[in-house]
Amino acid sequence: MAGNKEEKKKSRELILDDGHIEAMEENISPEELYVDLIERVRKYHPSDDISMIEKAYRVASEAHKDQYRRSGEHYIVHPLCVAIILADMQLDKESIVAGLLHDVVEDTIMTADALEKEFGSDVALIVDGVTKLERLKYNEDKLEFQAENLRKMFLAMAKDIRVIMVKLADRLHNMRTLQYMPENKQQEIARETMDIYAPLAQRLGISKLKVELDDLSLKYLEPEVYYDLVDKIAAKKSEREAYVQKIVDEVSSHLDGAGIKYSIDGRVKHFFSIYKKMLNQNKTIDEIYDLFAIRVLVDTVKDCYAVLGVIHEIYKPIPGRFKDYIAMPKANMYQSLHTTLIGSSGQPFEIQIRTYEMHKTAEYGIAAHWKYKEAADGGYVEEQEAEKLSWLRQILEWQKDMSDNKEFLNTLKNDMDIFSDSVYCFTPTGDVKTLPAGSNPIDFAYSVHSAVGNRMIGARVNGRIVNIDYVINNGDRIEIITSQNSKGPSRDWLSMVKSTQARNKINQWFKNEFKEENIEKGKELLQDYCRQKAIDPLKIFVPEYMAAIMRKYGFKDWDAVRAAVGHGGLKEGQIINKMMELYEKDHPAVKSDSEVLKEVEEKAKTRTGSYKNKAGIIVEGLEDVAVRFSKCCSPIPGDEIVGFVTRGRGVSIHRTDCINVINLSQEDRARLIEAEWQEDLIDKNKYFAEISIYARNNAGVLADITRVLTEKNISIISMNVRTSKQGTATISVAFEVAGKEELNRVVDRLNTIEAIIDIERTRG
Prior knowledge:
Hypothetical protein af1432, Beta Polymerase, domain 2, Ubiquitin-like (UB roll), 6 domains, six-stranded mixed sheet, five-stranded mixed sheet, 33 helices, 22 strands, disordered N terminus
């Protein structure tokens, strides 16, 4: 049965007809892949000298010679496939070489210095940009590790945009081979891909990568939805092809009559876009009619508008569904005419019209306009259109103001306007400003200058006074009214603005304006936390520990630390727990504790094997011992777990990413003991789980959350809600689930609620 199921999945992928999920051939040797790579490079590269690529292949093969992937294939297959993806984007030799070598510093004995000496500074910079940091520095804290790696990558991108191209190619091949990873890793990698890497590909205009990353993410995050879409679209394949061909024939005959040179084809919209439309419009696939688009390619911009005129003569356009991205390109350089029409049978369909050059940009984005284009002599020529990448500079600006990695990741995933749809408006002098869709005059004011935003008292749009929450439309002419007597921005503005730039500048104003208040508030919060945890502040507030905190978070003095705690940039618990960790390292526990631990360890040595219990846990080396689940992190089946030998209360089971486990002193770490889930008892038990939901405090958000939990047949044990002055609600919900798989389904469904910003599990 398992074999039939796997065979069915394979056959489903082979019937896809939109061409962006490629079935990777099996048992292709590295040598064959290398020949394929060179053939692809030679098709577009003006220079015949491929010695640098050949050398990189030899070095990578030697460095990875004893390494294998989870699939069982030689590791070198992965960098070769990454290089082939880069060659399909027609990138320069340095990019291809970096693709071949992108894992040698991280996974082999080769050093960054040796790489630079052999292949030059450009290749070394690109490889360093995609190389992960050493995990040990972050105490295996996944959030810290992920955030710091992304910060590093963005800094490298600012120096050389080829860094992200190699990273996207690396991620795409990893997604294509994700079936070999454990299920929990599949979910984790797919979520990160959908939240960060697919939007990055979109922002760079590389739709060829973006749509495949989206669809592959959907395949692992919502496999039932994905394969249901595959089946339903395949079921009407012949009917759809006949309808598309009919439209293609009709359009072709009229364009031939108009004497326009063109090429035309039809394609199915990719699965993720169909899924989003079903979700947003609450429709089934049978209720969505524009599942496909017709694309017409021509030589000139003049021909684009000529084709549009011909098509609007044949079919009736749907009002409000025409978009001119040629006159007003998207921020990622995308240009095309989009029009939605009613076919002769009454079924809507979309036609996209663009030039061949625009199509190349639509498929490969910045890669099609990359400023390092190689001449036949091996030198470089400057492309006329160099991408300014102002959005990347924007990331670098706002990430400097975010010392908290959780805030950085939440902003990147949920609130970063560089990934959102845009609206185009004009200054009084006619300059174009690009803002996130839904922006208001406050966003516009801060896009001009922070001083304009801070002194703003009103706005005119197209010559008339409007409210400051007026939603800007394409083509609006905005004029900001300022006053020297303005008292500055209101805190209410934080919940009104759409752009990250405006929000950060408003927060910065409040930080500077109320610095003294924040310092005093931070001092009180630190002292209160010490009182709650029965910690003597005199033990930890000493110069060496304070200096360590300032170094860790990049502050110049202790008042800056207090101010950060006061305005919420840092949590008081972060500071005090870190200082306690430093104190305990300098002051080991008393000897009697060690003796107790030694007795436990000696007892464990006299026993062998694994011992089970009714809690569904297998504990290594200890028999007849009480087992309980820790309330600080609430582990459930599917979590990686570890046991902690307590004094007189048996073994407490924690998640391995529990804050309390991560922050154990060196001596207490000796109390940790291996534990795992007992498969035959898991299905018989229900387990306590707790999540924190961060949401905009919109009307009905609690009703939406409880409705989702009811739909999923989840019984709520407790719910606690806290709201901030900025209009953000923190909702702690406790309930029982059968395991992590069920919890993930609940969280994924909750994430579809529009007001929700982020969801995380309790970690201690």
